[in-house]
Structures are given as structure tokens and as C-alpha cells.
Amino acid sequence: MDRISMAAPVLTCAIIDDEEINRLTLEHYISLTDSLQLVVSLDDALQGLNYFRAGNRVDVLFLDVQMPQLSGLDMLRVLPDPPIVVLTTAHEDFAVDAFDLRVTDYLVKPFDYARFSRAVQRALQQHTAPVAVAAAPAALTAPPDNDLFVKVNNKMVRINFDDVIYIEALSDYVVIVTEKQKYIVYTTMKALDARLPFDHFVRVHRSYILNMRRIEAIEDGAAVVPGGHHVPIGKSYQEAFFRKLNRI
Description:
This protein is an alpha/beta fold. It has two domains: 11-128, Response regulator (Rossmann fold); 140-245, CATH 2.40.50.1020.
């Protein structure tokens, strides 16, 4: 395969894909493209989030959609000031989500170098276009009355405490689960717990905070909540949990 040279500037780029063969393919295509310089290649979206949260920057991110623990789409929803993004996936079903997240291109695997090159050309065009940059707000803001604001996809979203079913820790992030959707927020369980109303929520596990008003049953050492999900109750949390449960 001949090396194709594209016009300057040279864009730094990153790869995040959990499958080695896909990373190797992208690494090879990047090596054939004069306008790209590979900075990092990672196999996990959480690693990618931590990489960018540490202050590292690239111009273009080649991001897989379906990955364990955290999908590429969910990563984008919580990544402040993301770079130019080219999604890669084996399925076409995520095109609408990709459009909503304003990704630059959407590559369906397997794709050849010609298709890859068109995506790079779009990235180059976007890179040279003027971009307005705003300061990123904090992940959490003080709630008025019965609400909490969280940063999702570069905007602040209001979540009513009554809508929250449970909250789960995920590495350096937390997942706020409601009946309609999940919100992945870059914060700690301790910081979030401090903002929750005491009469609504209780810590039941190192990795879980539970809305007491959404409990449907208690069985086998777990709280059953809407959707049939079982939230585990850790042994060290059981006494405080059942003491509080008896008051509601």
C-alpha cells in the first residue's frame, strides 16, 4: 500500500479500542498518513477518560463504540472539551447517537484506507475551522431544593432527586441511574453523597448509594429497585441501612 501524503497541518491523534486487531489496523493507517501523528493507543475507555482528565490533549480521537465497562458514546458524554472524534464500530445502529454527539465521522468496520482517508480529510477541515472555547463548569453544582445539576455532554442537566434510583461508583466516575437514563459524572462518591438529602439516600455499599424511596423489596442481601436490579447491601453498611429503613 502506497503512503498517501495529505496537506499540513499534522494532527496528533489517539486510538481507544478494546480489540487489538482494530488498534493495529488504525495504527497502520495512521503510519501511512503524513498529516497524522499517533500519540497514544489504549484498549479501554476508562483509561482514555483518565488520560484526558490528566490534562493530555490530542487533535483527533479514533474511538470505538462498544467496549466493556464504559462505551465510547458514554465516554464522550462525560468528556469535557473533547477533541475531534471519529467513531469506529461494527454496527450502523449508533449513527443517530453519533450525530447527536457531533462526531466528525462514523467508520463502520471493516473499513479500508480510502474510507479512513476521507475521515481524516474531514478532521483536517474541522481542525482548521474556527472554534469557540468556553470554560468547563464543575461536574456538580449545588442543588436548589430537590434538584442536582450534573455536567453531561458539555451541558448542565437538572436531575430531580426523586427520579434517582441508585448511584454506582465506576473508577473515577459515578453513574446516576434513573428510570429513563444513566448519567456518567466525573466526581467521587464522597463528593456526591455530601450533596444528597439525608432523608432520601443511604450508602449501602462501597460502590452504591441507594434512594430509600425507590426500594421495592429486600431479598438475599440486596435491595430490589425498579427495573428488577438488585443493589447489594454490604455487611458493614447493613446495621445503619436497616435502622434507617425502619424509620420510613
